[in-house]
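Example: Potassium binding protein Kbp.
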Amino acid sequence: MGLFSFIKDAGAKIFGGKTSAEEAAEQAADKQAAIKEANLKAAASLSETINDLGLKVENLDITISEDTATIRGKAYNQSTKEKVVLVVGNSAGIAVVDDLMEVEHTEPVARFHTVVSGDSLSKIAKKFYGNAMKYPEIFEANKPMLTDPDKIYPGQVLRIPPTKE
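Written out as structure tokens, the predicted fold is:
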């Protein structure tokens, strides 16, 4: 008679096992659960880091979905809010930060700068303030995330506060 071809996963389950489609669905569900657990752990770690840095945010809530982090809560002031955004955004795996925080004490909004190869705080200060010697303002604006003015890296995003005259 010869060989006949059939669709392996179609028809009655006579062996008591699962079809490939059922196994794939279970694996996908397991993978989704693992991703959700990893996102919860990452959000908890970010919250702990923000707390350890002394950044005051009431009812801080961070959620992560794929490469997007959403932040809710009430920051003490604008600079705290911006620093929280930077802590979260400068974390591996985060490409977008959805900032839904409120601010208790308003102040001028800072600009942001993404560090490129060859940048230094003095070069950035020259670009934004016209004076390379104003680099300490940028350093201070990014504490406690920065611990040394010479330790910045390409891809890092920094706060550039309005200049102090």
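Residues 72 and 101 are 5 Å apart (CA to CA).
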